[in-house]
Amino acid sequence: MKAVKNSHSSAWIASILLAATAAPSFADFDYHLERQDKAISLDLAAGIGYRTGDLQWSIASDVTGGETPNILSELTYSDIELEEFNSRGRLIFNYGFLEGVIVEGRFVSGEATDGTNQDSDYNGDNRTGEYSRSLSDAEGSETTEFELIFGYQVKLSESFSITPKMAYSYNEQHMKMTNGVQILDTRAMALSLGPFNSDLNSHYTAEWEGFWLGGDITWQSGNHRLNAEIQYHIQDYYAEANWNLREDFEHPVSFAHWSDGDGLRWKLNYRYQFSRYFSAWVEASAEDFEADPGRDVVYFSNGTRGATRLNGVTWEASGYAFGVEFNY
After folding, report:
1. What sign results for the dihedral spanned by CA atoms 195, 4, 202, 238?
2. 91-95, 169-173, 239-243: least confidently modelled range
3. Spatial separation of the C-alpha atoms in residues 313 and 292, rounded to whole Å
């Protein structure tokens, strides 16, 4: 799996270098000024990225969260290493009644090349009395992001501008669990320690959907552009899971989660225009999403349901990306 992905990465890097060497150089030409003479400017970007993320959630033993244990079960997906494909498009209206308006679309998909999951169960409050712990692989987990962004660019000077923005946003983490190993079990009917006797093939799919408000500040000088952006996200949280080894659970949806959430994301992007129509870019980003206490509903195989409290969910990630951009 890693060898295949590394070959894709090498192909992208080779494409970027080929475009940079094949295109005529305009290092001394300020193409930024020429673009402003057009009614509409268009940017189309593509690239690859690398990101590391952590997802964690837990449930209580009752719907109020006041009974012991207040943390009954907790899942922690750690060090999820993602290789991603990035793409985005942007329209900029340079004059007319829409002057300053920016419309952007962004799509990112990723697949995990590494990562682990820990599933712990407790008898006491605040993660005490742990009686069961298992580990599994998260390799092959997938992420998807989509954003539709609207902004209005305000020029502060020839070099600086600010752009307030608002956007529809959808983020998904499809977390897989395979190759299970039981590390601890103190119950009377304890499971055997070591690798699971049955093939673990469970998944947990988290969806963060809503909108964000934010903006960026941009410095432009000649063929260089530096952009810093911050976003505040307000989201609905929903998740579905399939615990394939639990015969008492329904399949393919064993339980579901509902909550409200929010979060922050920041980005720092640098772009260099190396020809009339092409530029190279590199970007660093980080995000921190949280879902408030909500509902956990379990679907049993006999057709009944059970409910308890979802204590909360966190998703944290950071990484970088680079690629090429077509500018017209």
Report:
1. positive
2. 91-95
3. 7
Count Cβ atoms within 10 A of the Cβ of residue 263 and give its class: 0-12 exposed, 13-18 middle, 19 or more buried: buried
Distance (Å, whole) CA 55 – CA 75: 8
Percentage of the residues of the chain whose pLDDT score is greater than 90:
82
- Are 48 and 84 within 8 A, CB to CB? yes
Q: Residue 101 CA to chain centroid, in angstroms?
A: 27
Alpha carbon distance 312, 56 (integer Å):
8
CB 48 within 8 A of CB 12: yes
DSSP per-residue codes, 173-188: EEEEEEEEEEEEE-ST
Average pLDDT over every residue of 178-188: 95
Helix (H) or strand (E) holding 31: helix 31-35
> Into which CATH architecture does domain 2-327 fall?
Beta Barrel (2.40)
Model confidence, pTM: 0.87
CA dihedral (164, 167, 173, 174) in degrees, to 10, reads -160
* pLDDT one-digit tens code per residue, 102-158: 999 999 999 999 999 999 999 999 999 999 999 999 999 999 999 999 999 999 998
Q: How far is CA 153 from CA 24, 102, 218, 227, in A?
A: 30, 7, 10, 13
Per-residue pLDDT reduced to its tens digit, 147-169: 999 999 999 998 999 999 999 99
Domain ranges for the chain: 2-327
